[in-house]
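Box 3.1 A note on notation
Throughout this textbook, protein chains are presented in two layers. The first layer is the amino acid sequence; the second is a token string describing backbone geometry. Keep the layers aligned when reading.
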Amino acid sequence: MTTGMPDTPVFVITGASSGIGAATARHAAEAGYRVVLAARSADKLEALVAELGDGALAVKTDVTEWEDNEALIARALDAFGRVDVVFANAGFGAKRGWLSETPEHWRAMVLTNVLGAAYTVRAAIPALKRTRGHVLLTGSVAGRRVLPGSLYSSTKWAVTAMAEAVRADLNGTGIRTTLISPGGVQTPFFDTPAEGRLEPDDIARAVLYAVSQPAHVDVNEILVRPIAQET
């Protein structure tokens, strides 16, 4: 660990109130991290903090607001003295079809999925340089193949590019960068449950695999599909 800092590593997660974010928080806490949980749903965050105990902190955050991202990292540093991992996971989807959602829904999704992820990473980089930490972003299989009529897919193509742009920019700093690209996951992203999807825990284990590698190993992308998914 970096000299002069507390020894226990700190894991910051956006979109932490449910799904992949909440599952990752549980796995990170179990692995010995203190966790800083960010989302717009303060009540859900507080319930998760109560579950995880003293090593968890909830910070109500709208990732589309730059000041909220700055405040998130500042709260993590004030509470725990360091930031080691930042998981830019906040995001949501939209129906396929260029006429199927409102322009307002599109705007909110693009701002959250793309600009929000960029803001979170930007806010975290100075702290991560001090710990030679780790950036993770939630992409998607939809960011590797074009889904007809899907602006959501377009946002995840942007996140795929963002992860590589960040990795190249941070080369030489000691910061690692990982894109987590899930296939179908049983999360609140879907209105109804269905068989053949991954569970949030499956993605959380992939996240912890990436961050648990030796410092000289940078797992740049993990693409995780359920065995029932054809494409």
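Residues 37 and 209 are 20 Å apart (CA to CA). The chain has one domain: 10-224.
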